[in-house]
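R.M. (postdoc): so does anyone remember the format we settled on? I'll just put the structure tokens first.
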């Protein structure tokens, strides 16, 4: 396309400020032209920080604006479907935070809306872009670990047990840790090992979260703060995933404990969020050893980001915008797209169904 990709941010909160706007500012092919949020005070603050861009409290105005090419949606989960449908109807390319919807059906609707208009669509699965995850994927697909057999992930956070706001109510969030954190691991597990065919899952809620951070009372949490699943992959491997926000002692400067590994017939490799520029690798008869991620995997080829600048556990997140803009400019599918987001949502939905029925569930995959 001619000229810069004109991007609007819908939802001007912390995620947009932390991940997406820095990515837009880094990419010379992109331009932030508008922001949308129901909080007018926040809009004014963001205009002061991000620049004198258009501001509105109505996403419908963003969807209808012919001077906007693409949108990044960073709003509460229950709003993702209507905002995406409106923006697709307005011929906007769309990146959306996870989970795409409150369930697989909503996510599939979002995929079809973008696909049927030949629009680029992307799910903001951040950890796909971590250098050690990119190198781990290379090791898996190049045969460096032999035949992949087992996948294992742990996402442990030491968060306060106060209210999560809208995130702790089913009609607004869908689920808790499962949709917020474990769904990331579901996505990259499938990217590494293939589709999950069948799962056995469980969730639990331990923290009532009936008080706000200031001590005032609120309605208690309805969603999980622990989730886990066992899965069978279509390429023959098996996996075990666990996540919790209640793991005392796993603070690690706010990044928590994020560990994922693939065990192959010839070796094991491990990703860790707290050291995303290194990877643990070991072959049979050896112990895992830390090595530096090769330079070519520190950032995607063509990324404007200098991988030697900034906090390693933060800066790789800026490459989401690079991938989104690249797909728009090159007229190709984004990776990961809404199809990947919907597939992960199908697995997460199946975790809830499995726990409810106390049985294994075959994961649906038909996007229509």
């Amino acid at each position: 396309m001619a000229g810069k990709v004109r991007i609007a941010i819908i939802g001007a909160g912390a995620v947009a400020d932390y991940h997406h706007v820095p990515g837009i500012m880094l990419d010379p092919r992109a331009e932030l032209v508008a922001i949308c949020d129901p909080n007018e005070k926040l809009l004014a603050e963001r205009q002061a920080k991000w620049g004198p861009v258009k501001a509105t409290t109505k996403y419908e105005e963003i969807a209808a604006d012919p001077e906007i090419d693409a949108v990044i949606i960073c709003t509460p989960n229950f709003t993702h479907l209507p905002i995406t449908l409106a923006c697709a109807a307005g011929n906007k390319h769309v990146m959306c935070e996870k989970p795409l919807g409150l369930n697989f059906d909503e996510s599939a609707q979002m995929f079809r809306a973008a696909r049927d208009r030949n629009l680029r669509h992307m799910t903001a699965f951040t950890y796909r872009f971590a250098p050690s995850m990119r190198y781990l994927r290379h090791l898996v697909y190049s045969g460096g670990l032999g035949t992949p057999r087992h996948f294992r992930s742990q996402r442990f956070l030491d968060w306060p047990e106060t209210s999560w706001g809208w995130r702790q109510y089913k009609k607004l969030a869908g689920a808790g840790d499962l949709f917020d954190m474990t769904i990331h691991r579901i996505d990259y597990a499938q990217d590494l090992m293939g589709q999950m065919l069948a799962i056995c899952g469980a969730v639990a809620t331990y923290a009532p979260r009936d008080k706000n951070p200031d001590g005032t009372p609120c309605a208690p949490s309805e969603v999980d703060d622990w989730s886990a699943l066992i899965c069978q992959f279509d390429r023959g491997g098996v996996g075990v995933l666990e996540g919790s926000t209640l793991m005392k002692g796993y603070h690690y400067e706010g990044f928590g404990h994020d560990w994922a590994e693939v065990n192959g017939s010839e070796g094991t490799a491990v990703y860790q969020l707290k050291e995303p520029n290194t990877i643990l690798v070991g072959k049979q008869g050896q112990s895992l050893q830390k090595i530096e991620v090769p330079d070519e995997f520190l950032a995607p080829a063509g990324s404007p980001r200098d991988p030697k600048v900034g906090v390693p556990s933060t800066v790789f997140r800026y490459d989401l915008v690079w991938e989104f803009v690249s797909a728009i400019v090159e007229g190709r599918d984004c990776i990961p797209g809404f199809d990947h987001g919907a597939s992960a949502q199908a697995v997460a939905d199946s975790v809830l169904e499995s726990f409810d029925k106390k049985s294994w569930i075959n994961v649906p995959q038909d996007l229509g």
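R.M.: ...and that's the designed sequence above, right after the tokens. Also worth knowing: The chain has a mean pLDDT of 97. The chain has two domains: 5-125, 127-335+344-355.
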